[in-house]
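Team,

Forwarding the record for the chain on the shared tracking sheet. I've put the sequence and predicted structure together so nobody has to dig through attachments.
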Amino acid sequence: MSDGEGAQNRAGPRAWWALAVLTLLYTMSLMDRLVIALMFTPMKEDLGISDFQLGLMHGLAFALFFVVFGMILGWASDRYSRRWLIFVGVSIWSVATAFCGLAATIWQLVLARFAVGAGEAALNPSAYSILSDEFPPAKRGLAFSVYGAGSHAGVASSLLLGGLLFGLLPRHFDMPFVGEVANWQGIFIFLGLPGILIGCLIWTLRDPPRRECLDEAKPDWREALAFAKGRWRFLTGHFLGFALLSAMANGYSAWTPSYLVRNFHLTLGEAATMMASISVAFGILGTIVSGIVADRMMAKGRQDAHVLLFAIIAAVQIVILTLAALAPSIVLLAICQAVFVFLTGFTGVAVAAIQLTTPNQYRGQISAAYLFVFSLLGYGVGPTLIGAIATYGFADDLKLGWAIAVEGWILLPIAVIALASAMRPMRSAMSDALEWRATL
């Protein structure tokens, strides 16, 4: 490698600071999004709702607005200030999270979750675009994996902070300017309101010049659609495969706290601590390691590394989820969970594959299309399907572990097939990308 090539493959301090700020915001978004799962038990008692309704509220209510606004804001991220889009989105989802704490009925909670989804839809398309402009191609796998690790940090934060507040707050208490609230309502308020201040960190970043734009192309949705049609085999396999992995991961994270409480008689705080510890120790590590492995596989000539790696991992997850359902003790269950969480570090690798094969002017729109499928299946189907299996399939509160495993038996074989089908098209897309990148 020449000195010039080495310089082009390095990222400066400004790039790493952008990565740190955006990862923090992503962590906060996942915390606000997922803390609801920790409070299923008290919410079920206070609102008198079923597991299926809880799954709908956690998943589909959020996912519907997340995917619809994601498409709109992905289009906007290719045209307008990405910093402003992120700041407004952070402000909306933070206020909406606090409003979840003011809800007294399931429908009020559903409306607040709609707003959380709409606000959070602003972050990823703009963050992906900024990181692609700050980092060279050789570093994007690592950069997006660090950013993706924010998902596990968000899960851990929701469990640790949510569990801590749940233990500190009385079951019902008076809150200034609000009146009497349940402890789960207070948690939403305490976690939501500081978000606007944290969102101001976006103004410490620049909105970098857009790189890797094809001169003859314009950021038009019709041209983005034409580009996607030319990549449909790769994008279909990629979108579906990683979306199903997301559905499994989200279903797991949504229902495992309740599984630990119901079947192993842990307190909510103990369940939260156990899951948070696993997520921090193994989830973040797995996400970063997967990015490093994908980058090294690419360097050795595997142009389909991103989809090949997780086709193999999806097959392994089927076995792990089955063993977890059979685990007779909390120790064996924790080992299975640690392995499963380590293997869910797909977020950064999935995004890197899109960024590497897509010209800059289409990245926001293609990323938004990916997030549409990823979120609709990941957040809409994952938690909801487990709730439906538990409520209508087993009709037994103590069968949650098997409900989680059954979802894996349904979704993960399809994910393996989808990702395997994307291998050859990804090799072709990478070859095309190398050609147009060489002309810039």
